[in-house]
Amino acid sequence: MMKLVVALTSLMLLTAALAAADTKREGVGGISVRVRGFQSNAGVAVCALFKKDGWLQPGKGQPRKVAIHDRRASCEFASVPYGTYAIAAFHDEDGDGEFDKRLGIPVESYCFSNRATPRRMRPPSFDAAKFEHGRAHTDQACELR
After folding, report:
1. pTM above the 0.85 mark?
2. Which residues contact 54 (CB under 8 A, 6 or more apart)?
3. Secondary structure of the chain as H, E, C letters
4. Residues with Cβ < 8 Å from 31, sequence gap 6 or more?
């Protein structure tokens, strides 16, 4: 009988621990993206938060437009479910909401999370830019190029 009580107690404790772990995995938190390296305070900073299946596809990211102060900007994403994400950001100097290019070459500064860099005139892969978000608040830094 005593073995049964110990086994049931252990099972209850294990179940409670697993439930707590599931709650943590399914939580939400904020993501702050600090963007630096602006050449001026003109225009706005545009940041977008992406999941893998929508990486850099129009309309698939969660965009933010924020003012630039002292050549820095901070984009805030609230109540983001825990998971794997990537950030793309750029300096929209003319405020037209578009990432401007001339002959396919960017004319506005840009950056990606995890210091990911373009390769062979193509944007980095999601895997190169990804980061894990799994706590109440995640900070990401992005340096424009």
Report:
1. no
2. 60, 61
3. CHHHHHHHHHHHHHHHHHHHHHHHHCCEEEEEEEEECCCCCCCEEEEEEECHHHCCCCCCCEEEEEECECCEEEEEEEEEECEEEEEEEEEECCCCCCCCEECCEECCCEEEHHHCCCECCECCCHHHHCEEECCCEEEEEEECC
4. 49, 76, 77, 80, 85, 133, 137, 138, 139, 140
Tens digit of each residue's pLDDT (9 = 90 or more) over 51-71? 999 999 999 999 999 999 999
The domains located in the chain, with CATH, are 27-143 (2.60.40)
- Give the Å distances, CA to CA, from 52 to 49, 60, 99, 112, 119: 10, 10, 21, 14, 18
